[in-house]
Amino acid sequence: MGRITLDKVRKAFGEVEVIPPLDLTIDDGEFVVFVGPSGCGKSTLLRLIAGLEDITSGQIRIDREDATDVPPAKRGLAMVFQSYALYPHMSVRKNIAFPLKMAGMDPTEIDKRVNEAASVLNLAQYLDRRPGQLSGGQRQRVAIGRAIVREPKAFLFDEPLSNLDAALRVNMRLEISELHQTLKTTMIYVTHDQVEAMTMADKIVVLHAGRIEQVGSPLELYRTPRNRFVAGFIGSPKMNFVEGAEAAKYDAHSIGIRPEHVDMSRESGVWQGRVGVSEHLGSDTFSHVHVDGIGTINVRTSGEVDVRHGDTVWLTPTAANIHRFDKEGLAIR
Amino acid sequence: MATKHSRAAARLMISPAVLLLLGWMIVPLAMTLYFSFQRYNLLMPGMEEFTGFTNYRFFLTDPAFFAALLHTLQLVLGVLVITIVGGVLLALLLDQPFWGQGIVRILVIAPFFVMPTVSALVWKNMFLNPVNGLFAHIAKFFGLQPYDFLAQAPLASIIGIVSWQWLPFATLILLTALQSLDQEQLEAAEMDGAGPMSRFTYIMLPHLARAITVVILIQTIFLLSVFAEILVTTNGGPGTASTNLTYLIYVQSLLQFDVGGGSAGGVVAIILANIVAIFLMRMIGKNLES
């Protein structure tokens, strides 16, 4: 079991309130991603759940038991840190065995569990090396190994992939998702990368300045963002926003349209514009089109499209996919 | 130092400094060696003659030599144990955030800036003196007989004085080492269920190993040649109870005017210091490799 409930949790450092009172429920076996720009309090929230920081007021419950004042070691949670935080003077085997040794487990049982974890994570031939002799991806796996041997109620990941290069990141993303399918344990994952959030999460929690902006499945957030912040943050490339007269036509203070929901044509359309920079990725083409009175609109076209800098094109937003926002930035439904 | 050319230039430019240092070391060493084979007493000028190993035979068979050797080792080991245990504890304490941290850290380092003669005199006259010393006053306040430290336990007193001088050095090095420990490692250990004691033994102490090695090596070099503290407090006495090798050589050559015997003692001291150095590097040198 690993059901975590936050009830009016608030955190302040002195006078500065970093997390205003906040409610959240994380169900057993769920993969929850906290996502938001840097400094939004997502790491702090994770550390509150871990017990590494004291909460100022409110209550944290793990499996219905009050865990607010329980020390980190007794909460039954395991954490993977951004810097991996491996113990440099211990071999990989000792690193993974450390939590079990601290729990006073029988050495033969420790050996069995360490070997099991090592084979799951493809670390078997590295067990006698020091962390300093491993590559970034291997260190990451050792850190995960150290977490899984404890068989915790939930895993906490604090931006675990941000120190890896792009190719390795994609691999580790798959491995962690795979691990979640195998273990079926609750996982809470903090990241600033919305691609990681979209690809891995069962449920995404979008945070902004310590507040929860929206909670939902990746596609829910993509289809029906609750406000302009979520709309701009989820989706890559970013949503285009248009204000003023054009938005007023739709009875809104501003409208948003994703690059993939704009059609581009050379003959006719709603907005006429001039092509600026085009990014040709092969699978897609992203064209930045300057439209008079509206601004720059980013357009995604599938496949290879022959547009050049300075070409005149016509854009047509798909009416069904236009998001409307009021003055406060809330979505109008 | 990428090319052959720049390597040659580097050697050429570094050579004056190396030659100067080499000469600075070789000349006194050669003179000491030369004197150690001479019958050379300042009271009998002009009577110098070659005597072979006589000086060494006399120095090594002197009962004071073995006492001095033992005292040297006791002094070095005693001070090392006190400064490292005390240094680790103080460093742990000073690493905690508290009000007035900056001032307290400066105060802790202060003893290191007091020169050895001065600190030994302060200890002798203001703390350890059986009539006017602070400890004597405290003893009298409780109705106890004042303890004459320098007469009853001369070597232990000197170990105390020298430890007081070197404790700041150990604390400083260990504190900086402790501050370089990654906080996430401690947090990870906390999550892994390690209590404060386990965190100290399994995370902090291994992290401090290198710093402790540095402290041991540097302090050993200086502690083998402790002299001023002995000269101004006990004069090596009572008897030879607080004479170390350095002090014995001083007695030999400057109080008994036997330059030949003193030089022989100096050569013996060099050999012993090298033996200690080899043992130290064997035992703890591997900690310095990354």
Automatic annotation (TrEMBL), chain A:
SMART domains: AAA (SM00382). Residues 4-234 form the ABC transporter domain. Belongs to the ABC transporter superfamily. GO terms for molecular function: ATP binding. Pfam families: ABC_tran, TOBE_2. This is ABC transporter ATP-binding protein. Keywords: ATP-binding, Nucleotide-binding, Transport. The lineage of its organism: Bacteria, Pseudomonadati, Pseudomonadota, Alphaproteobacteria, Rhodobacterales. NCBIfam families: PRK11650.1 (NF008653). PANTHER family: MALTODEXTRIN IMPORT ATP-BINDING PROTEIN MSMX (PTHR43875), MALTOSE_MALTODEXTRIN IMPORT ATP-BINDING PROTEIN MALK (PTHR43875:SF3). The keyword Nucleotide-binding applies.
TrEMBL record, chain B:
Gene3D superfamilies: MetI-like. It is a multi-pass membrane protein. Keywords: Cell membrane, Membrane, Transmembrane, Transmembrane helix, Transport. The keyword Iron-sulfur does not apply. SUPFAM superfamilies: MetI-like. It is found in: Cell membrane. It holds the Pfam family BPD_transp_1. The chain crosses the membrane at residues 12-37, 64-94, 106-123, 155-178, 208-228, 264-284. Residues 69-280 form the ABC transmembrane type-1 domain. InterPro entries: MetI-like, MetI-like_sf. It comes from the Bacteria. Belongs to the binding-protein-dependent transport system permease family. This is Sugar ABC transporter permease. It comes from Rhodobacter flavimaris.
